[in-house]
Amino acid sequence: MRGDSALIAERTNTSAARQGGDAAGASMVFVMRLVLALTAILTLFVAPGDLGNRHGQLSVLNAIIFGGYLLHSLTLLLAARRHRNPFWHGKAVYWIDLGWYALMVYCTGGGNSFFFPFFFFVILTASFQWGFDEGARITLGATVALTLATWLANSSINHGHLLLRTAFVLALGYMIAYWGGMGVAQRRRLRLLRDVSQLSNPRFGVEQSIATMLQQTRDFYHASNCLLLMRDGSDELWQLHSSGAPGGRASLSRLPEGAAAPLLVFAPQALVQYAAALHARLPGTRESRIRTPDDTRWRLLPPDTVEQLIDLLDASSFVSAPLPLRKGEGRIYVVSQTHRFNRADAVFLQQLAAQVFPVIENIVLLDRLASDAAFRERQKIARDLHDTTIQPYIGLRHGIAAVRQSLQSEHPVAAELDKLLDMTTEVIGDMRQFARNVRQGAAQTDAELMVALRRQAQQVQEFYDIQITIQAEDGLTISDRLAAEVFQIVNEGMHNIRKHTRARTGSISLSNADGQLRIHIENENPDGPTAPFLPGSLAERTAALGGTIEIDCETPGVTAVRIAIPV
User: Fold this and answer.
1) Are 396 and 427 in contact (CB under 8 A)?
2) CA spacing 20 to 30 A to 507: which of 93, 259, 501, 540?
3) Which residues 6+ apart lie within 8 Å of 101 measured at CB?
C-alpha cells in the first residue's frame, strides 16, 4: 500500500496536470480568437466591395468595429499570458464575443454577411468549456443576434435566406452544445470515479470513507441529500448514512427493519429513477421508471409505489441503485428538491457504486485486521506500562513519603515535598487510567478528547504556572483513531512550550476546514523573534499522518505552529 504522503502528492500532481491541460486549451482559444480578428480585418482591406461597403471602400464604422475586436482579442491574450490564468474572465467574455459578431454582421450586409459563421466559434468554445446549458444559451443568443442584425442592416430582407441561416445556426449550435455537454459530463464523471476510488486513509475508519463518498456524490449531482442504507447480515440493524445533515456534515443512525422498510420498497437489484411533474397541469411530464437486471428496457413504476417514499425524502426527484456488496445488502439514494434527474443519472449512480464499494469493503477488512492487531498490541502495552512505568512511580512516591515523614511540618522543604507527593499521586492515577483505557480499547470521543486536553493544560498551569487555553470549533468531528494521535500532538506542543520557551501563556485551537484537521499551537514570545526551527517530534507525527506543518516566527510577540492533517 502506498504511503499517505505519496497518495497526496499523486492527487496534487494529477490535479495540477488537469488544470494545466485546461489552461492549454483555453490559451488556444485566446490565440484562435486573435487569428479570427486578424483574418476579419484583413478581409476588409482585401475585398471591401464584397462585404456590403459602398463604392468598395472601407467605412469608418467597419474600421472601428473590426479594429475594436482586434484590440479586444489582443488584450485578452496578453492578460491571460501575463497572469497565467486563462479563466479570469468567466463566462462573460463569450457573451461579449457574441456582441462583437452581431456588430460585424450588421455592418457588413446583415443576411449577406460573410461573418455569420463566427457565431459557431463562440458556441463551440462555450459548449466544450461550460457544458450543454451554457452552450444552448449561447446558441439561442446567436440566433437572436443574427436575426436582429439582419433586420437592422437591411429593410428589404430575404426571409427565406434569413430562415435558412438562423435554422442552420440553431440546429448546428444545438448539436455542438449537446456534444460539448456530453464531453464536460464525461470528464466530471471520470474525475468523480477517480476521486472515490482514492478514498480517505483506512486508518481513519470506514465511516469517514463512506461520509467522504456521500459528500462527493451529493456535490456531483448538485443534490440536497445523499442517503446510504446498508447492513452486513439479516440479523443486524440497518445503518443509515446521510450527507444532508445541518452544516453539510454526514450523520449515521441505526434503524430496525420496520423503520428502514420505506427505503426498501423496490426489488433488491432494481435501478430506479423518479422526477415529479414540471407542473400540476402537466402530469404527463412526471417520470417514474424502474429497471432490473432481467429487463431489457426501463419499465413504468406504479405511482403508489413511491408516494410514501417521496414524502419521506421530501424530494421532487431522486435516483436509487443497489449496492454491490459481497456480504450484506443495501441501497443508495441521491435526492434533490430542485434538480431533475434522468435515467442516465441512475445508470451512472450504479456504476459509481460498483466502483467505490469494493474499496469500502477492503477498508472494512483492513479495519478489522488492524483492530485485532491493535487489541493484542494494547494488551502488551498495558502490561509494559504497569511493569516499567507505573511501578517505578509508585516506588518513587513511597520514597518521597518516607522522606516527608522524617521531617517536621515546619521544615522549609516539607511544603515542596507535599506538592511533589500530590503530583506523583495524580500522575500515577492518570497513568493507571490510561493503561486501563489502552487495555480495554475504549473509544475516545470528541468530548473525551477535549476533556483530556484541558486536564493536561490544567496540570501544566498548576505545576509550571503556564496558562494554555484549549479551543475547538463547534461540530468538530475526529475519529477515535485520529483522536489518539491528536492527543499526542497537542500534548507534545504543550511540552515544547514548557521546555523550550519562557512563555507564561499559550493557546491551542482545533478546527476542520477544506477536508483537513487544523491544529494551531501558539505561545507568547517575550524574548523577541526566534530563529527558524522545526520541532522534530511534531514533524514526525504529522508526516506519519500525511499532514503538513508550518512554523511562524515572524509575527511580533508570538510563535505559532500550524498543522494540517487530511481527514
Assistant:
1) no
2) 540
3) 115, 116, 118, 119, 122, 142, 145
CATH number of 445-567: 3.30.565.10
Q: Which of 11-25, 55-69, 501-515 has the highest mean pLDDT?
A: 501-515
Q: Per the structure block, which three cell numbers stand in for 318? A: 431522486
- The burial class, CB within 10 Å (0-12 / 13-18 / 19+), for 369 is exposed
The predicted structure's pLDDT at residue 175: 92
CA distance 552 to 442: 36
Q: Is the pLDDT of residue 287 over 50?
A: yes
Q: What does the alpha-carbon distance between residue 44 and residue 63 come to, in Å, rounded to a whole number?
A: 8
Three-state SS for 484-513 is: HHHHHHHHHHHHHHHHHCCCCEEEEEEEEE
Report whether pLDDT(193) > 60.
yes
Name the band, by pLDDT with cuts 50, 70 and 90, for residue 47: low
Helices marked H in 330-390: 343-385
Q: Would the pLDDT of 8 be above 60?
A: no
The closest of 374, 489, 491, 343 to 442, measured between CA atoms, is 374
CA distances, 218 to each of 189, 198, 205, 226 (Å): 13, 17, 21, 6
Say whether 133 sits in a helix, a strand or coil: helix
The span from the CA of 15 to the CA of 4, in Å, is: 17
Confidence band of 18 (pLDDT split at 50, 70, 90): very low
- Domains in the chain: boundaries: 4-194, 201-367, 445-567
| pLDDT on residue 444 | 45
| pLDDT for the residue numbered 54 | 45
CA distances from 138 to 66, 93, 94 (A): 21, 12, 8
Provide the β-strand partners of residue 565: 517
| Among 317, 318, 319, CA closest to 351 | 319
201-367 classified as CATH 3.30.450.40: yes
